[in-house]
Amino acid sequence: MDNTKKTPSTVAAWRAAVCAVLAIVLMIISQLTAFFLGSIPVVMGLPQAVGNVISAVLYPLFALLALKLLCGVFLGVKLADCRITRYKIKPVWAAAAFIMPSIVVGGLLMTAGHWENPALDGKQIAALVTQSVFLVGLAVGSVEEAVFRGVIMKALEMRWGKWVAVIVPSVLFAAAHALNGKLSLVSFIQLLAAGSVVGVLFSLVTYESGSIWPAAFMHSIWNIFMASGILNISDEAMENCIFNYVLETKSPLITGGEFGAEASVVSIIAYLIFIALAAVLLKKKTERSEKA
Q1: pTM of the predicted protein model
Q2: 74 has a pLDDT exceeding 90
Q3: Nearest to 96 by CA among 275, 284, 288
Q4: Inter-helix orientation angle 8-43/48-70, to 10°
Q5: Which distant-in-sequence residues (6+ apart) come within 8 Å of 186 by Cβ?
Q6: E strand intervals along 74-203
Q7: Pairing verdict, β 231-234 and 243-247
Q8: Residue 1: is its pLDDT beyond 50?
């Protein structure tokens, strides 16, 4: 029988790992619960747009309550210690939130292709807009940042330091998106690379600003532009999307492969541009702190 006692560092490592897993599980449970409750008014005859707004309100509410409990039990810290603070966004990141997807959309629209927009009625458009702006955009963007750049990043930072806290949640963030659908090996690798890079960006923005909310805002605006039912830029049109720009090229480097434009080289270049900006601003912040 092995009577070796676990060292404090081993216990801390297990606590961080369990906390990371539970944070993701709680995110999924919160999402499913919010979606279920949001579907009830739709079943009763109300428009889908109403259900989308209800789900978008409940999802972050449930998630933040669950994460607050998790932080207290496993980490012994408050949400504010995980940089889930009062909502405040620095102007530089508010501007970056719109500039980054604009660069990608502009670059992809310069590629040969054509518009192919389906005929949608008013209810369908309202459902797509509310889903895109409130649910996929604001709710999903905020919750994912609270989980990955808030709780998970804090848990790993407490045990292994900032470098691990930046890299590991970013890779987990990328891998989690692979669960959205079946991907080929090439598309999975491309998604893992792009998702990890944008995860590093959001991590650096969080460290630079001292709060998850600038990264959450950037994430939300990005989702509205690039991952919603408002605009789809790929080599195939989507029936359930307001605007479709169908690219003539089939190159996964441009289209992003099976995952979509978010994993394209154009997107990765945009991520890297803003990583450089975040790194410069973070370095300046660190130098000011050292001089103070």
Answers
A1: 0.93
A2: no
A3: 275
A4: 160
A5: 252, 257
A6: 113-115
A7: parallel
A8: no
Give the amino acid at 266: V
Give the residue among 106, 86, 108, 109 at the shortest CA–CA distance from 98: 106
Quick one: pLDDT at residue 7? 59
Give the residue carrying structure tokens 């009625």. Answer: 121
Q: Is residue 2 scored above 90 in pLDDT?
A: no
Asked if 153 and 20 count as a contact pair (C-beta separation under 8 A), the reply is no
Q: Where are the alpha helices (DSSP H) in 71-118?
A: 91-109
Q: What angle do CA 10, 16, 19 make, to 5 degrees?
A: 140
Q: Are 174 and 192 in contact (CB under 8 A)?
A: yes
**Token match 């054509």: residue?**
114
**CA–CA separation, 194 and 204 (whole Å):** 16
DSSP-based three-state secondary structure for 198: helix
CA dihedral angle for residue 184, residue 185, residue 190, residue 195, rounded to 10 degrees: 90
Express each pLDDT in 191-208 by its tens digit: 999 999 999 999 999 999
Specify the pLDDT at position 5.
52
> Is 151 in contact with 70 (CB distance < 8 Å)?
yes
Nearest to 48 by CA among 112, 160, 147, 129: 129
Give the pair of three-digit tokens for residue 286. 């660190």
* Nearest by Cα to 197 from 218, 174, 176: 174
288/292 Cα distance (integer angstroms): 6
Question: Is 198 within 8 Å of 269 (Cβ atoms)?
Answer: no
Structure tokens at 80: 């504010």
Q: 5 phi and psi, to 5 degrees?
A: -80, 145
Q: Which two tokens stand for residue 215?
A: 């990264």
Torsion of CA 89, 91, 94, 99, to 10 degrees: -160
